[in-house]
Predict the 3D structure of the following.
Amino acid sequence: MKRFEINENDAGQRLDKFVSKVTVGMPKSLLYKCIRQKRIKVNRSRAHEGDILSPGDVVEMYVPDEFFEEGKGAADYAKAKIVPTIVYEDADLLLCDKRPGILVHLGDEGDPNRAEAAERETLLYALTALLANRGEYDPAAENSFAPALCNRIDRNTGGIVILAKNAKTLRAVNEAIREDRVTKCYLCAVHGMLWEESVLRAWHRKNSRTNTVEVTDSPLPGSKEIVTKVKPLAYRREYDLSLCEVTLVTGRTHQIRAHLAHIGHPLLGEGKYAKNAADRKMGYSSQALYSCAVSFRFPETEPLSRLNGRVFAVDPAGIDFLSLFPEFDFRRHFRESAEK
């Protein structure tokens, strides 16, 4: 029998979700059978899969030990291979500048069975290690929670990734993202001259088999509408390249890359949606795209409302394609950024 006392990070979730997190390899059918047969109880009483757990609740599980594994200790995080670049941090969340070429987590490549050594090369592992080695996260003291990313960025795209240090913050940020109260600003270099600020609309269809998307002017079966705001900031005539600020109204897979290629202005270094042989000769073998700033709008009743009205931006020195536009003043453009 395993006994779990619900803490603040466990609270607020359904019983079945909690059980699935604290077990390993337990079939869903068996999980629900155990609840029905009262082999999983809450406060020594019969429970239901949809029961919401509260701090202080005690969950007892009379299931085989094979479905449990020992939690990791802080020493397991001594071998992290990445040193995170922190943009902003407080007691509840952390904003990290992910460099191009780094995976945010193993799921990026769709293979949950990758070797353990590869996990140490991910940003999530590095950030978890950082908190564990500081003593801010103790795996042994947690039942179901571990520091979690609220957003993800493609491997070869750089920019701000949001990490929640506790479950309450994770729920609040995820809700803000769903309700479009988190604004992420991207910078990119594209081929050709873009003359004026515009709102682009099209239709987007994902091909999971090829990990590519199709953008069309008219809807196709299975497609969804996309809206992309593009603002030209500078132009380099020598290379026929434009520096643009992009804001996503919708957030689909490869939306910026595919949408700009669709209108005839592919990103510098773009390899999936344009030919980049000439770009490679310039030293750009992957997309010139960076999620460079983020801002939040939380209800005033929430503690995270302390972040409202602030723009958090990365260090422009890490955006290599900005060197092609020496006249662009990044710090002035994001002068409201409070954390440097």
